[in-house]
Amino acid sequence: MDAFQLLSRGGVRFDKQRFQSDVRLFNKSNSTETKATVSVSLDSQLPPELDFFKYATGGQSKRKVTHDESVAGASRPADPSGSIQKRRKVDAEDQLSDDGSSDEEADGTPARKHRVVSKGSDIPMPADKFEELTERYGMAPRLLANLREHNYKHPTGVQAHGIPILLEGRDLAAISPTGTGKTLAYLLPVFSSLRAPIASLNDAGSGVRALVLAPTRELAHQIHNECLKLATGRKWRLVLFNKATASTLRDKNVRDKVDIIISTPLRLVAAIQEGSLELNNVRHLILDEADRLLDNEFIAQVQEVVAVCTYPDVRKAVFSATLPAGVEKLAMGMLRNPIRIVVGLKDTPLPLIAQSLTYVADDASKLPSLLTYLAQPYNPPLLIFTSTQPRASSLAEELTMNGVPNMDCLHAGMTKKERDDAVSRMRRGESWIMVTTEVMARGMDFKGVREVINYDFPTSVQSYIHRIGRTGRAGREGKAVTYFTDADAPYLKSIANVLLQSGSSVPEWILKLPKPSRLKKKQMGRVKRAETVNPARKIGRRDAIKKR
Ligand SMILES: Nc1ncnc2c1ncn2[C@@H]1O[C@H](COP(=O)(O)OP(=O)(O)OP(=O)(O)O)[C@@H](O)[C@H]1O
Prior knowledge:
The chain has 548 residues and is an alpha/beta fold. It has helices at residues 3-7, 20-30, 67-71, 131-137, 141-149, 157-167, 182-194, 217-231, 243-248, 252-255, 265-274, 290-293, 299-308, 325-334, 363-375, 389-401, 416-427, 461-468, 489-501, 508-511, 518-522, 541-547, and strands at residues 37-42, 83-84, 115-120, 172-175, 210-213, 238-240, 260-263, 284-288, 315-320, 339-343, 353-359, 382-385, 407-410, 433-436, 451-454, 478-484, 506-507. The protein is 36% helix and 14% strand. It has two domains: 116-343, 3-Layer(aba) Sandwich (Rossmann fold), CATH 3.40.50; 353-546, Rossmann fold. It is built from 22 helices and 17 strands. Helix 6 runs parallel beside helix 7 and helix 11 packs across helix 13 (299-308). Bound molecules: adenosine-5'-triphosphate.
């Protein structure tokens, strides 16, 4: 036990983070090795609109809470319908959380706190205000002005903790729920560390200086748009890597002056292999949606990209709302002396999203259920997830034929133009409903999405968390409905646990279902389904497509 633990045993709490330089001095005298530290912070400066973790008010219990206790009404009452809500079982790391401070501010408003657990050596102090970044790290006033202009007034949790870590030149693994501002958490330090556009330095440049990888074209596009916000007023060369820009960058004089590239892995690897792109000057490498980028589909390409980022001091960071243990190990292996931060509760959606499970018996019953739902007043815009491209198209056709207005469809089988147009219509608020596939599940930030419907059961807990995370973003409330059939029943318990952890209610019978085995979990959502959502319909499809 270290001296600080001993000192704090009588109820006194020693703030290691605040006095970290003293802690370092003390530790040095004990040992020459740098010890890993775990620190937990409950931010108290956030305005209500950024308080994504209102549920954390008052802190999390250090005990595991049993069903009985929660039903008895300790924290949340049992639903009269027989549903159960409970607080999340806390894991070992989470237990280090609370500081025991009061639930309310002096003026009676709820305390604005959320929980961040940081792990690693020499963890920098979080920055509660963007202005602090200018004082502490000399961040350009222009960046500060751009933040203000785009209404980024206060850092979110992942930003307050993550930005100083990156500005101190450390590698980072950041896990923070969907819609909590991870994009700005990595873009701001990248811009700040690069200082100025290479073109403005009258420097011939020696190649791309920062690279952001994302799993889908749409997400890369969105990240590029976020870059443009920070770039306002300066001539940064920001490249969204696609067919056209790849061709422009074949000219070495042009690509030498590029500041930041945002890309999906596949296209980038093609350019590297062709010899039309070098990444040996990349100083900042970011993997957004890291667990997806490190899964079987992308891992080889990502490893190839990482291998050619040979700048001696390249800084790497991985970000996601979910990072399963196996993938986390892989990610950590890529990083050098990293700091890991977890905002909120790992692999848990925001409690701002009211989640529910709806029994629909079999596949054929889903469409009537959805049509009945859409016949009632609902809150547009609404995203509907299906498991495959043909099913997305088929459902879109069915909805059109049933007169559902302002309906759109987006999946990876569509042309680039069709996909771009669908995203634009959604952003302009012209689409009330978008039927889609997993391609829209990660990262996409359509601010107003009020509801998500999982028409087809998700293929994993992570997929569920990302899909429903398209709503309830940036402090707004949202709703998520998941249809399940008899065939989905064996996997229900895994999703039900996620609902429970984030405070939504679950019917008691679901909790009594057996826990699926690891092998079984891998089959989740992969039940055989027809290509069309209404196999009975043969006529009228062509008309529906035309109409759409
Ligand atoms: N400091 C801030 N103040 C106000 N709004 C912010 C702030 N940071 C980010 N936002 C807004 O929050 C929304 C969500 O941000 P972002 O898309 O970066 O979330 P994310 O954590 O990356 O989500 P996901 O896990 O789904 O990718 C965006 O609309 C963004 O503009």
